[in-house]
Every structure is written in C-alpha cells, then in structure tokens.
Amino acid sequence: MRDERGQLGGIEGVAFGVLVFVIGTLIVADAWAAIDAKLAAASAAREAARAYVEAPDAETADARATDAAARAVAGYGRDPDRMALRHEAVPFERCQRVTFTVQYRVSLGVIPIIDRPARTFVATARHSELVDPYRSGLPGEAHCVE
C-alpha cells in the first residue's frame, strides 16, 4: 500500500472552471449581440422616421428614410444589407403619422456542449412620427392641432 503524499486533489475543478468560464463568455457574447442588434434597429427606425417627416416632398422622403436608416445601422458597426426597412403607405401631408419598422438579422454563435446549431435572431424595432402640422408647401389641413 502506497501513501498519498504528493497527490493533488481538485485539479479537475480547474478544468471545469475554465470550461464554465469559456461557455459562459460565449453565452454573454450572444446575449450582447442580440441587445446591440436591437439598439441598432431602434436607432435605424428612429432616424428613418425623422428623415421621412423632415423631407421636402414625397418623392425624396422614402430615399432619405432608407439612407438615414442605413447610416444609423452602419454607425453601430453593422451591415446595412442585413436590415429590412418598411413603413405604412400614408399620404405625405400635414399631421399624417408614419411608422417605420426595422428588422435586423443577427447570427448567434454556436456554443459547444449545448447541441444547438447556429441560429439567427431577428431584432425588430418601430418608431412613428407626425409630419409637422405647421410646414409650408404640404397639402392638407393641420387637423391634429387644436
């Protein structure tokens, strides 16, 4: 019978701790990617609505809104090609409420040990604004002002 001098107990705890740390970091990184995509989508929707209602006419409103949304997403360091922008078709006149919806696809990473394939998360945000009731050069009456 040999004695137990020189034996190290608990070395498996170090390996387990590293494993938990690495997988936990990957889970937090995925969560942050989803939160950051949601913030980018919210910013893009807000900027698109503002650009739309501040446009001088209906012809340039859509182009300005699309450009503003793409610049907002790019400002977050994200790819504007993964963004989908849409809005309800409303006449471009005073007191009309326009609502923009932005959807941004973000790919979440694969986490080892958790047997799940890579997946895509879609962050969605909406923002609406009124076309200024006191603007000149627009058709319609300012019925939203009392």
Structural class: alpha+beta
Q: How many strands?
A: 3
Query: What percentage of residues falls in helices of 4 or more residues?
Result: 40-55%
Number of DSSP helices?
2
| Biggest β-sheet strands, sense, barrel | 3 strands, antiparallel
- Which H/E pattern describes the elements? HHEEE
Largest sheet, spatial ordering of strands: 1-2-3
Q: How confident is the prediction overall: mean pLDDT?
A: 86
Number of domains: 1
Kindly provide the radius of gyration, computed on alpha-carbon positions and rounded to a whole number of angstroms: 25 Å
Oligomeric state of the chains present here: single chain
Please tell me about this protein's structure:
With 146 residues, this protein is of the alpha+beta class. The protein has one domain (11-130). Helices cover 42% and strands 20% of the residues. α1 (11-53) runs antiparallel to α2.
Helix/strand layout:
Blueprint: H1 11-53, H2 58-75, E1 83-87, E2 97-108, E3 119-130
Antiparallel strand pairs: 1-2, 2-3
What would the keywords be for this entry?
146 residues, 3-stranded antiparallel sheet, 42% helix, 3 strands, 2 helices, alpha+beta
Give a short overview.
The protein is α+β, with helices and mostly antiparallel strands. The chain has one domain (about 10-130). The chain has helices at about 10-55, 60-75; strands at about 85, 95-110, 120-130.
